[in-house]
Amino acid sequence: MTIFIISFIALTVIVLLIGFHFGPHSTIASGLLSATLAVIAIVLLATQKNGTVKIHSLLLIASGLISFASIASIALGSRGLKQAAKGFSMGGDRNLSKLIGKTGTATSAIDPLGTVSVAGESWSAESVSGPIPKGSQIYVQEADQIHLKVDFDPLSTLKRREPN
After folding, report:
1. 42 with 120, same domain?
2. 65-88: per-residue pLDDT in tens?
């Protein structure tokens, strides 16, 4: 039974981390999914003896912690959505249209998703033209509430080809 409880905890942590990575909508969804997983685990792993239900104490503790993390995830996702609707984030101005046309650097390989640094901030990014290696100069073509759509920076490509 302990291996099932550990597997349950690992799965729930993975769901929560994925939700936090993809933004407020995913954070809320991962919170709801992990709360559902906690209920399912209790129902499936509860044992019955003589008509009474017995729940393993480790399962009860794990479910309590997961429930707390789920509620926190839903609250943080809701806060992120409210802040995005106002046009602000915890860090300040969220007018992402200012980022269109800016250049930056791929801080991870982008194939098709990855991360970039633009205007001193880290952003989730999607390549519009295929894989972009880590360290490449990028150009922001589009921006939405969650991530930037980027391509290779054409000016940096020209600069590399120009003789000194």
Report:
1. no
2. 888 888 888 888 887 777 665 554
